[in-house]
Amino acid sequence: MKVINENEFNDEVAQGLVVVDFFATWCGPCHIMEQVLEQIEEQTDNKVKIIKVDVDQSTKLTEEFNIKSIPTIMIYKDGERKESHIGVWQEDEIIEILENLAQKD
Fold it and tell me: For the chain, which domains are there?
């Protein structure tokens, strides 16, 4: 999973299905979410892009999206935010949302 900065964000979410993980290196639940996202990456055969935003390094994005708690997960499709979730999110719930969004092509 690629960690991106403010300058890369819009380009990274512009096309396809993208899961964005707002995290911090010191956050315990973020480490759990990272494992969930790694499993999703494997299950989707890399057809879904998963990117990470370090809230301590990308403060402009953190402020822009009003991130108050981490992990915060956002799902984008072709540049449009479709879903958001604060806290650890279950793998099967994310997969279901991604499958539904993929079918809407």
Answer: 2-103 (3.40.30.10)
Out of 27, 32, 88, 102, pick the active-site residue: 27
Contact 17, 45 (CB under 8 A): no
Residues paired with residue 77 on neighbouring β-strands, in sequence order = 17, 80
CA angle 18, 12, 79 (to 5 degrees): 65
Please pick, among 19, 20, 30, 74, the residue that the annotation labels catalytic: 30
How far is 35 from 43, CA to CA, in rounded Å? 13
27 is catalytic: yes
Structure confidence by residue, pLDDT tens digits, 73-99: 999 999 999 999 999 999 999 999 999
| Helices 91-103 and 28-43, packing angle to 10 deg | 40
Annotation says 30 is catalytic: yes
